[in-house]
């Protein structure tokens, strides 16, 4: 039974293991942020993810993912009422609508975890990774 004001949750062992390994690997750095326990780490991760989710909700009405393929991503730009294709050119993500590699569509695609990991697994880095 958890302490008053706290709740208990159940997670898959594989998920637990992944989070615990990340916590153990970064324990010293986390202590500088005031995180001194695994449950504190999980709480901070959930809080951070909720903030990202809420922030993304501000932009979500304007753009939405339709399809992620091996070499391209299709999104819908609701503000411009257009379907936008982004593809890999010269090892960089290129927006075919704007004919640019640094437009808002490219930024949106890099904010999607599934596309970000797909692109970085191919050795493609975002501008954020380069700075």
Can you walk me through this structure?
With 131 residues, this protein is of the alpha+beta class. The chain has 2 domains: 13-59, no CATH class; 63-130, no CATH class. It has helices at 13-25, 27-32, 38-59, 104-111, 113-121, 127-130, and strands at residues 63-68, 72-77, 82-89, 92-95. It has a 4-stranded antiparallel β-sheet, covered by helices on one side. A hairpin with a 3-residue loop joins strand 1 (63-68) and strand 2. The mean pLDDT is 86.
Taking the alpha carbons of the first and last residues, their distance comes to 46 Å
- Structural class by secondary-structure content: alpha+beta
Q: Work out the number of β strands.
A: 4
Topology order in helix (H) and strand (E) letters: HHHEEEEHHH
Strand ordering within the main sheet? 1-2-3-4
Q: Summarize the main sheet.
A: 4 strands, antiparallel
Number of helices: 6
Count of discrete structural domains: 2
Q: What is the overall silhouette?
A: elongated
Strand content: 15-25%
Mean pLDDT score: 86
